[in-house]
Amino acid sequence: MTGKISNYSDYTAVDNTHFADYLLLKDLESNLRVHFDGTYFNNFYTDTQSANEASSLTSSLVELGDGDLQAMADLVAYKLSEDRSYAKTVAPKVGAREFRSLEKQQIPLDKSSVDLSDAFVSVSVEHLVGVTASDKGRILEFLLWAGIASVEFTKIDEVTQLQAIHNILGALRNAKSDDDLKEIFKQVSICFTSPLFYTRLGRDIFNRMRVQGITEEDLATGALLGMMLETYVRGGFTGRDEISTIQTSVKLNYVGIGEVDIYCKYGRLLCEVTKDNKEPDKVRLNEYFKETPHIRVLTTENEYAEPPDGVDYYKIPYAKFCCMLDTGDIFKLEATVAD
Fold first, then answer.
1. Domain boundary among 249, 283, 314
2. For the chain, percent of residues with pLDDT exceeding 90
3. Residues with Cβ within 8 Å of residue 268, at least 6 apart in sequence
4. Do the domain assignments include residue 237?
């Protein structure tokens, strides 16, 4: 979109700054702006409803009004805050991690000067109190049918079967209380397919921070960058699923073994997503499916390695990996058997 990558088949042109530029929509701001206001949500509702009516997916016609679209935005913003207390409103969950990251970079911070009283995230915390569990369930179901969000399953052993997707949708549709929703989220997570949903809200927060040294570029650094990278990669895999109408992904976290972020069964691919160069003893790629060939990939900051050069899994810098995922080239790698 910005002309920085002229040819996706030539990954030598890719570096990690391209991913940060994508998160910030760099060089597109003069022509592309997204404002979370009434006009935006009314247009969003109309366009999505028209697209659903024109498709053969009649089951995607979830009853959703334009007022629900504002509640949807409130849900997103609330996820960044998760508490009505003043302390967490001025330093929401994501923001608090970024504060610590910036402190490590010795950027001077004055938390007492942060004022988010008029910020979208703060206002949404107040709005969400009035959104019923039934409304939340319907909105989340809409996000899934519209392809804006996906269901992430966590597999904890070889035996336990994953919950059927129609059961998840039914539970969302029939949720009557917050306890009903909590029961659903004991089994699955509902994740946005694009990190831009978060970074646009993150920019709203940062723009209102009266703190010396913080710029919009800080949205693409530290812990937040790692979260956005995982969101992008998860969305990239779920978007390639041409079988299921509702997009899903699977994370492995067997008891006593540890976590692998993505298990792509149809491509026989295991992936651990990190923006850093992870220590070998913390990599779990070879602990799963030891006797079955799988493409095993660890994303890194700058390390690169191909089996059998001393490792049993590929090491690919994360920006290059994103390109390989976009083109499908990641599935052309040779599968390996864990040693």
1. 249
2. 27
3. 292, 293, 294, 295, 335
4. no
